[in-house]
Amino acid sequence: MVYAGCDIGASVVKAVIIKDRKITGTAKRKIDDGLEKVTKGVLKEALQAGGLSLRRASVLGITGREARSVKFFRPFMPKLSFRPEELCIAKATHKMNLNIRTVIDIGALGFKIISIDERGMPIDIITNEKCASGGGRFLENISKALEVDLDKMGEIALISKEPCTITNQCVVFAETEVISLVNKGVDKKHILGGIVSSLASQVASAAKRGGLKKDVAFIGGTSKNQGIYYYLEKNLDVKLKKIPLDPQFISAYGAAILAGNSG
Amino acid sequence: MIFAGCDVGSLTAKAVVLETNKDNINPGVISSELMGVRPLPEQSATEIMQRALDAINISFEDIDVCCSTGYGREEISFADFNISEISCHGKGVYFTDPLVRAIIDIGGQDLKAIRIDEQGRLVDFKMNNRCAAGTGRFLEVSAQVLGVSIEDLGPLSIKSRKNISVTGQCSIFAEMEVTRKLYSGIKKADLAAAINKAMALRISALAKRIVHGVPTCITGGVSKNIGVVANLEKVLGMSFKKISFDPQMIGALGAAVYAKEYFNTRPAKQEKGLA
């Protein structure tokens, strides 16, 4: 049986296909067109990566912030299963590492800190609700403002021995603050150091509020940033566990596993 | 006597020059200028003040007292002193229309509701400067997504025929919401109207208590967006008093008025000036 999982996030749609309990293909695309079109394209690509056609998936698991915004599936998919994101994340991390008790997920628009029990069920969740501070979008905007490649940001940030203090939490205002630091002639590496440590400390203080249980995994697009990784470990005083799957695909993978359970 | 006010905000710099007669009464505005900011506040201040002075063919030496205000007010070396933009808005509005008792000022990076008494003194205020929601930056970010200039948001919203909502309060959430809705085929005019409505709701939540039941005017760059203003009047259930001076220049005007008052309270300098 072929199961598809699709994570429709705020800025990127991700898909994972599993066949006989193994991942056969993944795909992702930035939302740069109608949501239906993007989602269909991503699913097709992920299926094709494993040599499968759109009709082969028997159940499609859907999750993510915009899961309910897509309405087109009927003619292609026999069965849909909508699952909350924290459940998908908990299932997927539990499958890959049985010792994980806390998952820190930093996506584009914010963070999620999910506590999971020994059976892989989510028992508590802390998120930001009304404001994008603490999300990866912050890094995206700053990378544009400073003309530094998003993938290189973390690396450059870590060179700085004396990172700046960024006073604004609001993503929009922090960007203005960064521009004024540039105008004052502050070195980019110190600014990036400040940005990265500011984001990490916002997430870390939220994580500590919930009483952090080990082991801790760090996932989501932002976990690819080494700077955030370093400062998060430093602020939390724990070693973060790596998950053997591209951290952006965890939710979609969980949705595919859950689709398999329901079909 | 010549008095100058200089307001360096987050997005624009403004300068106003006031002239009084020999006895330092009957002040009148003789020059006012506005421009987008330069990288440093000092640069913006010097350039805008130079423009205002050039327009009336006088130089920096002719200014008797200069007061600075706004976001960059502490970094302007040619100003004799500085006053917060909250007080300056109160002063400026009182100078143009002494009957107004409350001001909603929406700048590039902050949102303020100010209450003044019958002598133009500040009695209460509420301010948001930690979050971009409800400020000019929210409109700027949204206009960028729509691919229109910030000036066009108001006129564009009037063409709206469909009632759409943007629910995200955070500018970044709204930006993504607008992007998605745009891709799904919703018209720009309807989205522009939704953005203006979201702004008005946010502003009213902050300003409601301060402006309740008193003659109120609206100042700052966003007051030029007719869509936001019309929505705000509707939500607050009041109509704003029109003021007889450019609402974006009120802070600089207030600073110039402060400069004049500062002169009055310094007898030593006054004697010198009158000699």
Fold topology:
The complex is a heterodimer of chains A (263) and B (275).
Chain A (H helix, E strand, L loop, with lengths): L1 E7 L3 E8 L2 E9 L4 H15 L9 E5 L16 E3 L2 H12 L5 E5 L4 E6 L5 E6 L9 H10 L6 H7 L11 H13 L4 H22 L6 E4 L6 H11 L3 E2 L8 H13 L1
Parallel strand pairs in A: 1-4, 4-5, 6-9, 9-10
Antiparallel strand pairs in A: 1-2, 2-3, 6-7, 7-8
Helix pairs in contact in A: 2-8, 3-5, 3-6, 4-6, 4-7, 6-7
Chain B lengths: L1 E7 L3 E8 L8 E9 L4 H15 L9 E5 L11 E2 L2 H12 L5 E5 L4 E6 L5 E7 L7 H11 L6 H6 L12 H13 L4 H24 L4 E4 L6 H11 L13 H15 L2 H8 L1
Parallel strand pairs in B: 1-4, 4-5, 6-9
Antiparallel strand pairs in B: 1-2, 2-3, 6-7, 7-8
Main features:
heterodimer, A: 263 residues, alpha/beta, five-stranded mixed β-sheet, B: 275 residues, 9 helices
What would your notes on this structure say?
The complex is a heterodimer of chains A (263) and B (275). Chain A is α/β, with parallel strands linked by helices and 263 residues long. In chain A, 39% of the residues lie in helices and 21% in strands. A five-stranded mixed β-sheet of chain A has the order 3-2-1-4-5. Chain A has a five-stranded mixed β-sheet with strand order 8-7-6-9-10. Chain B is of the alpha/beta class. Chain B has helices at residues 41-55, 85-96, 136-146, 153-158, 171-183, 188-211, 226-236, 250-264, 267-274; strands spanning 2-8, 12-19, 28-36, 65-69, 81-82, 102-106, 111-116, 122-128, 216-219. In chain B, the strands form two sheets. Chain B has a five-stranded mixed β-sheet with strand order 3-2-1-4-5. In chain B, a hairpin with an 8-residue loop joins strand 2 (12-19) and strand 3 (28-36). In chain B, helix 3 runs parallel beside helix 5 (171-183). The two termini of chain B are 12 Å apart. Chain A binds chain B through residues 10-11, 31-35, 66, 69, 108-109, 130-132, 135, 137, 168-173, 176, 180, 183-184, and chain B through 10, 39-40, 109, 130-132, 137-138, 141, 169-173, 176, 179-180, 183-185.
